[in-house]
Design a protein that fits this description.
- By secondary structure, the protein is an alpha+beta fold.
- It has 8 helices and 20 strands.
- It has 2 domains: 225 residues, Rossmann fold (3-Layer(aba) Sandwich), CATH 3.40.50.300; 99 residues, no CATH class.
- The chain has a 6-stranded mixed β-sheet with strand order 6-7-8-3-9-10, with helices on both faces. A 5-stranded antiparallel β-sheet has the order 13-12-11-14-20. Strands 15-19-16-17-18 form a 5-stranded antiparallel β-sheet, with no helix packed on it.
- The longest helix has 18 residues.
Length: 335
């Protein structure tokens, strides 16, 4: 198991990572999700041994990896820019890490064939790297990282340079390969779709700290802070005055709030109203005129003139005034 313990790192005399700690158990894919500049890639480089922390430890099975050089950590790393050798063909790129394991030529050839088959590149062994598409090159990079049977795989924004269709295709492939191999993985991205699709557990990184962690469903349904809710686009963020009896009086009406926090009457608190689980009714607690309707994957994203938007199962008309029932289960406290 990988343990990251109280990692600190600064950049240009400004704090970048301020006491980051987490674990990656066997077989789990953990996603480090955050905005550009949040320290995700730096943290990955520290785990790989390419940079040293100013404080803290990276451990594997309890062993401090501080004095262990990168190539002896036996971690596989996949970069956004592929980092392939253009003067070597596909099979030679994949075999690069295997040559340091003192294997026979026949063993290397067999392993290269096996791993290329796993990433659906069996017929590409003799192809030049420069003749491959971006998606094919990323498959080769994945095969090279997996070939030596690493004990941990790390991905640093691997799909960032690809167009949408290729990204979706590679997401499916990476998920399939990780599930089949059982190798634990850390996946760094700023893309929420990648995080929710690939991760068993999401770690949300902001201002040098992990501010929220959990499954994708847990993190998106209850982000825990205003920043996280807005970054994840988890729903409608509002402010309201807390009222006795568990109501929050907002500019669009009073909403029920089931909250474990202690609030004073009249206290201004932020809340999240999620977009799903909302019903159109005749006597709802929120209303407005429809300003936009977009059909998305079997649902209708409806925007009202109060700037709130929700997903409804049935179409509504532009300009139509509608009433919606907002149940307590769709409202989260962000205080």
């Amino acid at each position: 198991m990988l343990e990251v313990v109280n990692i600190w790192k600064s950049y240009k005399d400004q704090p970048l990572l301020t006491g980051v700690s987490f674990e990656v158990p066997a077989g789990e894919t953990v996603c480090l999700l955050g905005a550009s500049g949040s320290g995700k890639s730096t943290l990955l480089r520290i785990i790989a041994g390419l940079e040293q922390p100013e404080q803290g430890q990276v451990r594997w099975a309890g062993q401090d990896l501080g004095p262990v050089p990168t190539h002896k950590r036996f971690f596989g790393l996949v970069f956004q820019d592929y980092a392939l050798f253009p003067h070597l063909d596909v099979s030679e790129n994949v075999a690069f890490g295997l040559r340091m394991l003192v294997l026979s030529q026949s063993e290397i050839k067999l392993r290269v064939a096996e791993i290329l088959d796993k990433v659906n590149m069996s017929g590409f062994a003799d192809r030049n790297i420069t003749d491959l598409s971006g998606g094919e090159q990323q498959r080769v990079a994945l095969a090279r990282a997996m070939a030596p049977n690493p004990r941990l795989l790390m991905f640093d924004e691997p799909l960032g340079a690809l167009d949408r269709s290729l990204r979706e295709e590679l997401m499916v492939e990476i998920r399939r390969v990780l599930r089949a191999s059982g190798v634990p993985a850390i996946y760094v991205t700023h893309d929420q779709e990648e995080a929710s699709y690939l991760a068993d557990r999401v770690l949300l990184l902001h201002e040098g700290l992990i501010v929220r962690e959990g499954t994708a469903a847990e993190v998106w349904s209850d982000p825990g802070s205003v920043w996280a809710a807005k970054f994840l686009d988890a729903g409608n963020v509002l402010e309201g005055s807390y009222q006795p009896g568990g109501l929050v009086r907002t500019g669009i009406g009073s909403l029920p709030l089931a909250c474990n926090h202690i609030h004073r009457p009249g206290e201004i608190i932020p809340i999240l109203v999620t977009r799903r689980g909302i019903r159109q009714v005749q006597d709802g607690n929120i209303g407005g005129a429809v300003t936009d309707v977009i059909f998305q994957r079997g649902e209708y994203k409806v925007t009202l003139d109060n700037s709130l938007d929700f997903f409804l199962p049935n179409p509504v008309l532009m300009g139509e005034r509608i009433l919606l029932q907002i149940p307590p289960s769709t409202i989260k406290c962000l205080a």
